[in-house]
Write a structure and sequence with these properties.
There is one protein chain. Helices cover about 45% and strands about 15% of the residues. It starts with 10 loop residues before the first strand and ends in a 5-residue tail after the last strand. The chain is of the alpha/beta class. The longest helix has 25 residues. It has one domain: Rossmann fold (3-Layer(aba) Sandwich). It has eight helices and seven strands.
């Protein structure tokens, strides 16, 4: 474990943290000293492995099954965090769903699902955080670099992430008097199971060719940005969307 512990005695909830970027964020915050609530919906085995990884770092972690798109379950997530660790200092809204389809071919069910997970899920945890996050806390939401790219088949997904960015800006103003910062991290193409699913090698090469640094992002690239934003070094940054995308254009 590193001697530098900027998050020592802090507690973080990381939604959707059983794998991918969420798992990496959870482990990196733990390495920086935080105790972690590992949230998951379906993959208990993966969530428990993240808990074990965090415990090997000498930090406490607890896996909590909760669908944050359901307001009662979002409340339960906060209840468990407070019962386990006494307070909540950091909320990272990583849970999300993706949908690749044209607007014309998007069904009502598809649209309702992605809106529920990406927007309502984020909204539910933000609403809980307004009264239950400690003063001086940190909130990180997740958007996507596709929001401003006008990419076909990303319409509903980009719409949900644009909504998340607006929630970030408004909430930053609403709770800034408590010295809580609220920011959005907007990754570019990142090597995760979710990103790679359904993509051919040719599609991945095409996306990579649009990245100035010449490679896909890795989950730890994104986690490092989250770590900075939840640290005291970023205390003067709020209401912002940080593009962590290697110069994706």
């Amino acid at each position: 474990m590193s001697d530098y512990q900027p998050l020592e005695n802090k507690t973080a909830i990381v939604t959707g943290s059983s794998r991918g970027i969420g798992a990496e964020v959870a482990k990196m915050l733990a390495a920086a000293g935080a105790n972690i609530i590992v949230n998951y919906v379906g993959n208990q085995t993966a969530a428990e492995q993240v808990v074990l990884d965090i415990q090997t770092l000498g930090r406490k972690a607890h896996a909590v099954k909760a669908d944050v798109a359901q307001s009662a379950q979002a409340k339960k997530l906060f209840d468990v965090a407070i019962n386990e660790f006494g307070s909540i200092d950091i909320l990272v809204n990583n849970a999300g769903a993706i949908l690749y389809t044209t607007i014309q071919n998007t069904t009502d069910e598809d649209f309702d699902h992605i809106l529920s997970v990406n927007v309502k899920g984020t909204f539910n945890t933000l609403r809980e955080a307004t009264t239950r996050l400690a003063d001086g806390g940190r909130i990180i939401n997740f958007s996507s670099s596709v929001v401003n790219k006008m990419m076909p088949t990303y319409g509903p997904y980009a719409a949900t992430k644009g909504a998340v960015e607006q929630l970030t800006c408004v909430l930053a103003k609403e709770i800034g008097h408590r010295h809580i910062t609220v920011n959005t991290v907007s990754p570019g193409p990142t090597r995760t199971e979710l990103f790679l699913y359904g993509k051919t090698d040719q599609m991945i090469e095409s996306l990579t060719s649009r990245i100035a640094l010449g490679r896909l992002g890795e989950p730890e690239d994104i986690a490092k940005v989250v770590l900075f934003l939840v640290s005291d070094q970023a205390a003067w940054i709020t209401g912002q969307t940080i593009l962590a995308n290697g110069g994706y254009y």
